[in-house]
Amino acid sequence: MKPDSRWGTGAAGDVAASGADLTRERSAQLFAILSDDSLPEQDRAGAREDLVHLHLPLVEHCARRFRNRGEPFEDLVQVGTIGLIKSIDRFESQRGVEFSTYATPTIIGEIKRYFRDKGWAIRVPRRLQELRMHIVTATSELTQDLGRSPTPRELSERIGCTVEEIIEGMESSNAYSTLSLDATDDGEEQGGSMLDALGIDDPNLEHVEVRESIKPMLDQLDPREKRILVLRFFKNMTQTQIAEEVGISQMHVSRLLTRTLDQMRVAMQDAR
Question: Which domains does the chain carry?
């Protein structure tokens, strides 16, 4: 007699088969308790909890399909368990469907949704997240059919939405992932990061607005007053040096500076 290939060969196959049968029988008993409204709530809650523990291996089996994708296996199991609980609460044993068959798509769907939500750097509406997935699929199909990248109008006709919605979905794709400023451009720890390539603020920028506001006022000054201001504030000369340069007394330089600055101060206040 040939061994049953579904379960392996020899004693190992028999053990696997008997284990699956025991799980199936126990599951049926627990679902019977869970669906019996005449039983105390405590008994039904206990059956629900036992069902979760009984089918955790199924969750772990589904989670293993998504390993090595950047998320801890334990987190994937937790997310998959949420799908398992949803399946338990919605399952109707009288339909004659195997629970594992019913629960697997829900568990996998929950894990896939976790990856989809986790990938968005900026939170966008669920509608746009789903539209982006449709756009990606339609773009791939149309590229093969047309031999080129499809236009937004062609995508809208394929998906069944407006061109404006397609453009909105494309723009939302920019929020799907971001790159850290500390990330290197060659994947090596010793490589330069994006932050190293960014410029710094020019400390002189904050003075640009002031200089541009003063220029018209300087043009209106008397040539001697203008020269004194330039010597004092642009060439950093002392009042004594300015007096020798211009040929007047230091006291006269001081009075001219004070008067000129007062005039410019009033003019700037009026300009505001």
Answer: 10-118 (1.20.120.1810), 126-179 (1.10.10.10), 208-271 (1.10.10.10)
